[in-house]
Amino acid sequence: MPDASARFPAEWEPQSAVLLAWPHAGTDWAERLAEVEETYITLVAGITRFQDVVVCVADDDVEAYARARLSSARVPMARVRFVSIPYDDTWLRDSGPLTLVSRDGFRLLDFRFTGWGGKFEASRDDALVQGLASSGILVKSDLQPIDFAMEGGAIDTNGSGTLLTTWRCLHERHPELERETVSGRLRQWLAQERVLWLDHGYLEGDDTDAHVDTLARFAADDAIVYQACDDPADAHYGELQAMAAELAAFRTPDGAPFRLFPLPWAPPIIDRNRRLAASYANFLIINRAVMMPAYGVDEEGWQVDAAAAAVLADAFPGREIVQVPCRPLIWQNGSLHCITMQLPAGIVAPD
């Protein structure tokens, strides 16, 4: 049974800050660093309209540079905190802490980060949660190391005991384990009552083995936003149609179907003969707003971005939808949600 003293909050619950790591020449962003920096500046500027941002920096020089770039963009620096910590890359959704809220404070779950199943070097990223726990920037928090490989982008919760994930990803990380075994462990560690498994859904260009945060996300206890595909000629059509059918078959604990919000399909984005994984489901929920990845660079793309924003506005009534240009991010196979991790209200130490 889930631990009654702790719960895994939904992303839309109150937050202290959003955690991210500044890109620099020592990361995989080096080749297109200038473009990526512009996305980060726009993202931080957008988030700080609503709440604080905690920025991981690799050293003093990176901090000084990030501070200068953000200041010159007129970002309200009183809402930006810096923490010096080593990292291999900037995908903090996958290497950052999954936080449970308990009666006495917070529990930082430190799953093993293996570079998405050993695809990339990840030793510094795997140590990031422990480094944050000892940095002093997080308060009332206990570290819980878990000897199980899993990334934050692989799961999504509605905050009421239901977890959404994909079998493709978790089976790839742990091929020796049966589904029921994995379900039981996730329920225990994440204080969940049940796990909903998707067997379909993928994005060409995605190297995470089908992270759920590129495919389907909770918008409320009883609502799911998902990436649809309505083009029968597209290679994704069959898988995403099958995923939509799976979502339609899911039921809430009281037996009702979930309210479903299909997101439009972005026009194919090709880079050096490689299709990039452009998903509108990779949005970030913050206090009073939703930060949405935008991919359009022409009229057709802008129209699809606007259609995606309209779907998110319906799914998240009362929240402002803020578009962030994310084409530079998908060059490295991730998007807006992938580079961020929300920190629940009360966990960040006063400045």
UniProtKB/TrEMBL annotation:
InterPro entries: Peptidyl-Arg-deiminase_porph (IPR007466). The keyword Mitochondrion does not apply. It holds the Pfam family PAD_porph. Gene3D superfamilies: L-arginine/glycine Amidinotransferase, Chain A. Keywords: Hydrolase. It comes from the Bacteria. The keyword Transport does not apply. This is Agmatine deiminase family protein. It comes from Luteimonas vadosa.
